[in-house]
Amino acid sequence: MDAGFQHFQSAFADHLRDPAHVARPAGIPARRAAVYQELVFNNLCGFVDSCFPVSRAVLGEARWRRLCRTFLRDWPLHTPWFRDIPREFARYLAEAPIATPLPAWLPELAHYEWVELAVDISDAPVPAHDPDGDLLAGRVVLNPTLMNLAYAWPVQRIGPDYRPRKARATQLLVYRDADDVVRFSETNPVTARLLALLAAAPTTGAAAIAGIGRELDHPDPERLLVFGRDLLADLQRQGIVLGSTS
Q1: Full-model pTM
Q2: Which of 4, 7, 26, 57 holds its CA 20 to 30 A away from the CA of 175?
Q3: Sign of CA dihedral 54, 41, 84, 197
Q4: 244 near 138, Cβ under 8 Å?
Q5: pLDDT, tens digit, 9 for 90 and up, residues 176-231
Q6: Contact, 110 vs 72, CB < 8 A?
Q7: Mean pLDDT over residues 133-157, rounded?
Q8: Which alpha helices (DSSP H) does the chain contain, by range?
Q9: How far apart are CA 49 and CA 67, in angstroms?
Q10: What is the C-alpha to C-alpha distance for residues 185 and 9, in angstroms, rounded to an integer?
């Protein structure tokens, strides 16, 4: 590709990202450049708005539009896929040095909203498993779309009518069930840890429960095993656990 044309493309892209501070390349009429500016920004906002309705509502339209503008201007978007724009926006909120003061919980709220999209479009294959297998003796198979999330804020409660003032540790499970419906479930640290152990490496339910018992220094391993068996069965009913393999 001609080096001069590449330079022109780069200069025009810089202008479209920040038309207030980067001059348009010579030869492009202001009216046509304005059309491109509007198209690029509105297309970006379309993907961001649809994924983050709660974040948009709690910030208000003016602050939200300014945030979208700085995202377009400051965050390097290297992906060719439009569906990755929401993921990059969540990363922008979590990682970028944003000058505008934002609520401390906003990055986690945005991540939580993005997770719904990520789970919905996940193409992770369903692993082989026996839905009637023994969840204690067999190696437990988890739903491949499961996201086991830990947040410092109660993100599932945040909205226009509730903005938390204090952090509260929150564990959430997000997954797609057998009917392709995205499900959300608040859980507790023990269940979250059990699922993390099962996801880390193929292992039996009994071994994972025993590992929890050692971590907690539980005084009654047999009682814990019974509790864990019932918990695994409940998780299977919800579609979080699929079954087991030998």
Answers
A1: 0.89
A2: 57
A3: negative
A4: yes
A5: 999 999 999 999 999 999 999 999 999 999 999 999 999 999 999 999 999 999 99
A6: no
A7: 98
A8: 3-17, 30-51, 53-59, 61-74, 85-95, 106-121, 189-200, 205-216, 221-238
A9: 11
A10: 46
